[in-house]
């Protein structure tokens, strides 16, 4: 079978009314475009901000690759690609937490903040995966632990050490930090909500799994690309000063 025939077969599997598959495809293209934008803009920044923009590009690139496979999985089996989604999250969400550390280094952020945020995010994701895919019989317990870790991140950036460092930095750093905080509080809220709505035996019947995947896909693209654009904008403003 030639490559062109293989691609044609994959495209044929995606129905025009398959909104889940459509959002997987659009999410993949949007995040790949964002990656190209971030990577191609690296040379305009000095070393201090280049790492932050590079991480933004890595986040969207990793997500784009996973979305390519998730779209194919959905088209082939008609099932939510839970495993691929969590692999994506376990790589990209800690990197999004790293962004907080990178923009707050100017205010003296220490590596303890970095590791704290990474550990919270990994606990949130690993326990979420166990509740959704490994041990759904105890989904409420795993979901509770995952939720506690999520709110620990929210507390850290809104009221904890990260918040104090952002206030000390002031100016563009403080403004960007606040926007990223809203992304976590509002944008990331789709993940615990999706967990409850998409886990068998819990609240699956309210929306149905397909609708949850559509919400995940749209929120993922907004959160990851939006995160990167906030960091990019901060780098541009800081470079101009």
| Shape estimate | globular
H/E series:
HHHHHHHHHHH
**Spans of 5+ residues with little confidence (pLDDT < 50)?**
4-10
The total tally of domains equals 1
Task: Provide the helix percentage.
Answer: over 70%
Give a count of the beta strands, DSSP E runs of length 2 or more: 0
Number of helices: 11
Level-1 CATH class name: Mainly Alpha
CATH superfamily: Rhodopsin 7-helix transmembrane proteins
Structural class: mainly alpha
Arithmetic mean pLDDT: 86
Q: What is the CATH-assigned architecture?
A: Up-down Bundle
Report the end-to-end length measured between terminal Cα atoms: 57 Å
Summarize this structure as a short list of keywords or feature phrases.
about 240 residues; mainly alpha; Rhopdopsin 7-helix transmembrane proteins; 11 helices; about 85% helix; about 0% strand; globular
TL;DR of this structure?
The protein is built from 11 helices and no strands.
Describe this structure in words.
This protein is mostly helical. It has one domain: Up-down Bundle (Rhopdopsin 7-helix transmembrane proteins). The protein has helices at residues 3-13, 19-40, 47-77, 82-104, 111-134, 139-158, 161-169, 171-187, 190-198, 204-207, 209-240.
Give the arrangement of secondary structure elements.
Elements: H1 3-13, H2 19-40, H3 47-77, H4 82-104, H5 111-134, H6 139-158, H7 161-169, H8 171-187, H9 190-198, H10 204-207, H11 209-240
Helix pairs in contact: 2-3, 2-11, 3-4, 3-11, 4-5, 5-6, 6-8, 7-8, 8-11, 9-11
């Amino acid at each position: 079978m030639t490559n062109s025939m293989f691609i044609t077969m994959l495209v044929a599997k995606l129905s025009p009314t398959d909104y889940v598959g459509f959002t997987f495809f659009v999410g993949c293209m949007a995040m790949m475009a964002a990656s190209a934008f971030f990577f191609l803009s690296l040379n305009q920044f000095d070393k201090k901000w280049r790492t932050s923009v590079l991480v933004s590009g890595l986040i969207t690139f990793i997500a784009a690759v996973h979305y390519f496979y998730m779209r194919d999985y959905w088209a082939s089996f008609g099932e939510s690609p839970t495993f691929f989604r969590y692999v994506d999250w376990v790589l990209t969400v800690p990197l999004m937490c790293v962004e907080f550390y990178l923009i707050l280094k100017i205010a003296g952020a220490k590596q303890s903040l970095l590791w704290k945020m990474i550990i919270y995010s990994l606990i949130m994701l690993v326990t979420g995966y166990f509740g959704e895919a490994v041990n759904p019989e105890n989904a409420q317990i795993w979901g509770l632990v995952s939720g506690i870790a999520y709110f620990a991140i929210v507390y850290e950036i809104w009221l904890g050490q990260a918040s104090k460092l952002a206030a000390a930095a002031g100016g563009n750093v403080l403004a960007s930090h606040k926007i990223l905080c809203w992304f976590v509080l509002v944008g990331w809220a789709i993940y615990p909500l999706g967990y409850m709505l998409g886990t068998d035996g819990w609240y699956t019947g309210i929306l149905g799994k397909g609708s949850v995947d559509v919400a995940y896909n749209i929120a993922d693209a907004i959160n990851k690309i939006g995160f990167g654009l906030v960091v990019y904008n901060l780098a541009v403003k800081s470079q101009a000063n």
